[in-house]
Amino acid sequence: MINLVKQNINFVFLIILSISAWSLNKSFETKESIMIDEKSKIENKFYLKSSKIISTDRSGIHLFTMDAKYAEQESTNIINFYDVKISYSPQSKISWIITSDKAIKIANEDFFLLEGNVKASTLKESSQETIVLTDQLEVDPQRYLIKTEKMVTINIDGNNLSAEGMMAILNEDRLELKSKIKGKFLQKNIQ
């Protein structure tokens, strides 16, 4: 009888040990699956080195190219591009190149938001080169539109202007300054 009791105690002890091991294993599996889900969210982001976006119009004619040394997905709606250069194709007859430290592309928006050391300059062969400098610029390359509400410095053939806010329509070579316009043009440079 004592042997039977010892066997039953051993059997009950093994059952308790098995249930404990099983529940301990399940708790680790849950944590592991949560960790896998968290890792998969991070792994779904993408990072690109030396990225290039080539845009065409509806008929397939090359409009512009955006080059970036590095790009990363910040969220499902935002992609950041770094060390950016936007240049228009010769077919578009737009003589501007735009560079910046960073460009942000938001899903469902037509424009890029450029930030940090933004420079827009003409490539004209004539003597009147125009350079626009600012900290932030909204660029809609398909509509040939650039604009900002920030301070801008504009150099037109050696003459400097500054203003708060600006809009330029690149395919019309038209530049509009919004407010607080300051500048000086030397008589010798006016033609």
What does this 3D model show about the protein?
There is one protein chain. Strands 1-2-3-4-5-6-7-8-9 form a nine-stranded antiparallel β-sheet, with no helix packed on it. It has one helix spanning 2-43; strands spanning 47-56, 62-73, 78-88, 96-106, 112-122, 130-140, 145-156, 159-169, 174-184. The protein folds into two domains: 1-44; 47-189, lipopolysaccharide transport protein A fold, CATH 2.60.450. Mean pLDDT is 77; it is low at 30-42. The radius of gyration is 31 Å and the shape is elongated. By secondary structure, the protein is α+β, with helices and mostly antiparallel strands. β8 and β9 form a beta hairpin.
Number of domains: 2
| Number of contiguous helices | 1
CATH topology name of the largest domain, in short, is lipopolysaccharide transport protein A fold
Unreliable stretches: 30-42
Secondary-structure element string: HEEEEEEEEE
State the CATH class of the largest domain. Answer: Mainly Beta
From the alpha carbons, calculate the radius of gyration and give it in angstroms: 31 Å
Number of strands: 9
Helix proportion:
10-25%
Q: Strand share of the residues?
A: over 45%
What's the N-to-C terminus distance? 120 Å
Mean pLDDT: 77
For the biggest sheet, the summary is: 9 strands, antiparallel
Q: What do we call the CATH homologous superfamily of the largest domain?
A: Lipopolysaccharide (LPS) transport protein A like domain
* Strand order in the largest sheet: 1-2-3-4-5-6-7-8-9
Structural class: alpha+beta
Architecture of the largest domain in CATH?
Sandwich
Shape: elongated
